[in-house]
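Z., the sequence and structure:
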Amino acid sequence: MKLPMTLGALKASGWQDESVKDEMRRNLIAKLRTGEVLFPGIVGYEKTVVPQVVAAILAKHDFLLLGLRGQAKTRMIRQLVTLLDDHMPIVEGSHLNESPLRPITRRTRNLLDKHGDATPISWIPAASRYHEKLATPDVSIADLIGDIDPIKAVSRKLDLSDEEVIHFGIIPRSNRGIFAINELPDLQARIQVGLLNILEEKDIQIRGFPIRLALDVALVFTANPEDYTNRGNIITPLKDRIDAQILTHYPTNIRESQLITEQEAWSDRGIEVRVEPILRELVEQIALEARESDFVDKASGVSARMGISFLETLYSIAEMRAHRHGEKVAIARVGDLFQALTALTGKIELVHQGEQEGLTNVAIHLIGKGVKEAFNSRFVGGHKKGRDKKTDFSAFQPIVDWFEAGNILEIDTMTPHEEYAKLLGGVGGLRDVVARMAKPGNEMEHLLMMEFFVEGLHQNFLLTKRILDARVRYTDAVSYMMNELTD
């Protein structure tokens, strides 16, 4: 379809001018009626956040997404552009995307008066109608709204009282589109005051100019609750003018976490990398333990990016081992979790108690807790007797007996697969116990579960583990104490 390129042709086409919020509402209703997914790639918000965002858009509200880091706030607001028409007509050359039927600047009105129906029209795509600004303490009113440009005044020989000397900021340039401010509390209070008129009266004022530009902008914001106390706050008049405040959240279960992680993690390594389901679940279990840990600052949160980085690091460790030994398939192991600490240490903020323990020790502790929770929930039985809960580990006794006989299992991170299988296979009773309790579907899963059982027994204090650089040595408690005395 050929788009009209003059004002006259645009009028003849029957095109109707409407506000950006009416446009978003119209396109949203069409998507709702067809059952189209509104926010592709957003997992876990289908019954919580998404309905609230939909309600805000249908009500033509400006809204704020409030939540901890890594809760897909920015991704959600960037997808609002899908609610805009594919193309929108503007008066050609307009810096503020002015409607041919609703000009707001003197320059454009003069142009329309001069050329009439011959006024040239341009069409801009939906992607060009979304603008975003990260709020930082150095953001100024000039950045957001505009200011006088003395260079323009001198070069064009204009009087400083002429409207043409104004250099418009990013919000006026978002006219007839969507403007988003990330981390709103980071804006200084005096800058937040400058947004009041835009939200309430939908116009702007620049210095002493007697002009009031009626803007048509859908405004959305994001904020982290931590910011209210640590770095700044949202001034009360501004909060009052934001129509809807929508709370985001972390995934409510491990399955949702897995969907997010697997959707985002980079796995195409040019070599087959196998990460068994139990390891993928452990990644999410560890993230869950981090969010609940007394060592970790809950106000800061633990981003979903931690799980993504964690899984990608597991891929890389397995890939490194396969390349070093010329193996065609890279296979991730339970021990690789403890070699992937870099994915955790940069993603958690510690409270005072955690800082005393040390970042690395806290990360190792969280991985251990994740392994223990996953192991016990699957394989450890127990019964309650009065107020005491007694755990039954009798099924694992053949494995414990083998270690108590003075045997040692030592695995290096870079141990090739064949040797890895041989070492695990040499642990008396391990293969049979795993086969009976875990019922693995293939040899690869069997080996992984064998290592998982050994680590799970260690986390339950039935075995002792010592980390020696990239090597891990499992023994019984007595052997460990004797080795310590010898050392």
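The two ends are 82 Å apart (CA to CA). The first strand starts at residue 63 and ends at 66.

Let me know what you think.
H.
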